[in-house]
Amino acid sequence: MNDGWHSRGYLPHFDGGEISQFITFRLADSLPQVFLERWRKEFEKESDVDIDAALRRRIEIYLDRGFGACYLKDETIATIVQNAFLFFDDERYKLSSWVVMPNHVHILLTPFRGHTLARIMQSLKSFTANEANKILKRKGIFWQQESFDRFI
Asked: Is-contact 145 8, C-beta < 8 A?
């Protein structure tokens, strides 16, 4: 994949090589897709609104209310997520900061040469989803497919 703007579905993403990225990703049940679509339509009707920025703010407020199963409240699962972040620190990326919330995660990292943000996120989400589902004795989608990333 080339560096630059692209889409993996609904949201635009920027894979800029060795540029710091702030990423938010969330549990699959934390925010219904219908809400995102409704909010986007509402913002599109307004003039002089940065739709993407307004949507990000609305999403953050909603996620911070803790809707959904909030599997990340479980210390064991939160630790798996944290340890997954730390595992490839200084190998695939430079990890600057992270926080694990009950239904979503924020992470600030800088990919190293040869490691795209898309591949890093796919690896982190795949591993943590499989491990969390084992602990929870469940099957199915754990993380929302899309994530929100912003280059710094």
From this structure: yes
Fold of 18-143: Alpha-Beta Plaits (3.30.70)
Ranges of each domain in the chain: 18-143
Predicted TM-score (pTM) of the model is 0.84
CA distances from 23 to 39, 83, 147 (A): 21, 17, 7
Q: How confident is the model at residue 23 (pLDDT cuts 50, 70, 90)?
A: very high
Q: In this predicted model, what pLDDT tens digit does every residue of 46-60 receive, in sequence order?
A: 988 898 889 889 999
Phi-psi category of 16—alpha, beta or left, where left has phi over 0 and alpha has psi -120 to 50?
alpha
Q: Which of 17, 49, 55 is nearest to 148 (CA)?
A: 55
